[in-house]
Amino acid sequence: MTDAVVQDTGVEGADQPAALTDGIHLVVDALKLNGVETIYGVVGIPITDLARLAQASGIRYIGFRHESDAGHAAAAAGFLTQKPGICLTVSAPGFLNGLVALANATTNCFPMVQISGSSERHLVDLQRGDYEEMDQLAAAKPFVKAAYRVHRAEDIGRGLARAIRTAISGRPGGVYLDIPAAVLGEVLDAEKGAASLWRLVDPAPRQLPQPEAVDRAIELLAGAERPLLVLGKGAAYAQADDLIREFVESTGIPYLPMSMAKGLLPDDHPQSASTARSLALRRADVVMLVGARLNWLLGHGDAPQWNPDAKFVQVDIAATEMDSNQPIAAPLVGDVGSVMEALVERSKPGRITAPAPWREELTARSAQNVAKMSGRLKAAATAHPMKFLGALQAIRDVLQENPGAYVVNEGANALDLARNTIGMQVPRHRLDSGTWGVMGIGMGYAIAAAVETGGPVVAIEGDSAFGFSGMEIETVCRYNLPIVTVVLNNSGVYRGDDASPSDDPAPTALKARHDLMIKAFGGAGYQATTPDEVATTLREALAAGGPALIDCVIDPTDGTESGNIAHLNPKGISVPR
Ligand code: ADP
Ligand code: TZD
Questions:
Q1: pLDDT tens digits, residue range 474-531?
Q2: C-alpha–C-alpha distance, residues 171 and 434, integer Å
Q3: Ligand 1 neighbours (beta carbon < 6 A)
Q4: What percent of the chain has pLDDT over 70?
Q5: What is this structure's pTM?
Q6: I need a labelling partner for 563 at 20 to 30 A (CA). Which of 91, 125, 185, 536 fits?
């Protein structure tokens, strides 16, 4: 039933007022009907009343300082809940600010819908210079899974139904829904309005693989001498944790988790090959990718990083992902849950067993690598000024006491080193820069994790990375969210010791006391100069359960240019430093 406004239209006489509704009410009703519980956004013309009405109707509205952050929050909400996160933006500039997050969501295969108000079509389309004029539908199209515009209030329900289904069915992604101000303000008969809305039936249907495709994959894996599984964030998204674990453990195949798949099985699982990654890639002869693309993050599957004779099995909901980089010998097109279920069933009883010599080879290499690393970790633990690895070991220890905490992570060194140092015990508890390696997701992802789950969040941020969404620390404080932001502050992008060839600071230089920032908004601010102080303040902040920020003073000479992807920088003639 629509939240109708009863008004006397004068048409039917004073005795029989007709119930009316409008575009704004219909948007809110359609969202509620489809189970939307939270909207992330920034208000202004023409959507302020939409946010007010949503809040009054029981939808939680989280108001941000910048639309990119609201958008990133919606994307993370989509990843965590398998329901499209909703981001609400104003016309033109607000829309464009949000679009970067919508594009990032599409790249990461997270379901999200950006609903944006827009200016008057008859003015925009003739380029007459309207307030915040822009053809937003055309602008959005290249960056999203789909873009739709609603021209009549009676199509709002249809538009939202299309947007929601498109965002979560098949390969999830970002969908843009344009609703011009005139449509939001269009008044219509309440009954007609209510009849125009519907609730989606089975919006993300299961997609089962063909039995022959499953058998083909089983045959390859069963015949492998050195099989390997690679679990990606699509596997984490699928929420098929028990089936994945059953397949891994019943076959004994070693696995590598991509960063956001960490915790699908606990990182200290005996079959994890994380600490023998290079050897695993170089030697595996049959590799099964589960919700992971063979993109740059996996060296495109190319030699010499990979065994040139490796055969690939790929589990993915998008058939077009197959063969994108390497020939896929056994494509398994379907949702991860359905495919893993079929693999578990059809490989019984014990048709696949990873050969012991291969497992032993990886275990031996892991032990060697861990021993090599332990010297570096030990040295970092006592180094002064504090190193990245000194602070990170302290964070690791505190997180081990809090395995239910969500970890958000971005930066270059701050990302690489935290990913390798901090083990995850629980699925979908790590959110990071993802497929684009984008900076700026930090506070949006952290806010969504706290809002959607109620759980504590630790955001581990490079100082440059944090700055992209730093103003949202006010949002964290305003909503009193249990988020502890730990800034690994080495005073620069990558590092803080670049000399400048001019009177200006070097291009990589930064300078900030982030702990003072949060104090301005009423949160707890700490500065930590030793690993002990990092551990003590993090423990205290987590126990307090409110907004906090720990500025960790890191040696400006610690850090590598571009972290572990320095090889992607163009190599021309050398530049003065
Ligand atoms: P990572 O960066 O962790 O390696 P990617 O983002 O590259 O992971 O890959 C995720 C893949 O998972 C995408 O190709 C996407 O189509 C796929 N995917 C997403 N959801 C599902 C699902 N429910 N079932 C199967 N595949 C999925
Ligand atoms: N802008 C955006 C949106 N994304 C990016 N990835 C970059 C710029 C370039 N960039 C990186 O790839 S990492 C990084 C930038 C600016 C910041 C690295 O510095 P940091 O981390 O302080 O966050 P470390 O730990 O000091 O390396």
A1: 999 999 999 999 999 999 999 999 999 999 999 999 999 999 999 999 999 999 999 9
A2: 16
A3: 108-109, 171-172, 232-234, 237-238, 258, 260-261, 291-293, 295, 297, 316-318, 321, 335-336, 435
A4: 97
A5: 0.97
A6: 536
Residue 14, pLDDT score: 54
Secondary structure of 411-434 in the HEC alphabet? CCHHHHHHHHHCCCCCCCCEEECH
CA distance 147 to 216: 38
> Looking up tokens 């020939």, which residue turns up?
327
Whether 60 shows a pLDDT value over 80: the answer reads: yes
Question: Which residue bears the tokens 């939202």?
Answer: 160
Closest C-alpha to 42, from 51, 55, 32, 30: 51
**Cα(412)–Cα(466) distance, rounded to whole angstroms?**
12
Indicate the SS3 state at residue 174: strand
Going by pLDDT thresholds of 50, 70 and 90, the confidence category of residue 10 is very low
Q: Give the pair of three-digit tokens for residue 324.
A: 């994108």
Nearest partner of 145 among 187, 111, 179, judged by Cα: 111
R_g over Cα of the chain: 26
Q: Give the ligand whose atoms come closest to the C-alpha of residue 565.
A: 2
pLDDT tens for residues 86-143? 999 999 999 999 999 999 999 999 999 999 999 999 999 999 999 999 999 999 999 9
* pLDDT, position 130: 93
Residues 6+ apart with CB under 8 A from 491: 463, 509, 510, 511, 556
Locate 11 and state its tokens. 């048409």
DSSP output for 493-506: SS-S-PPPSSSSPP
**Considering only CA atoms, which of 311, 253, 297, 301 is closest in space to residue 281?**
301
At 188 the three-state DSSP class reads strand
CA dist list (Å): 379 to 34, 384, 552: 54, 10, 18
Atom of ligand 2 nearest to the CA of 490: 26
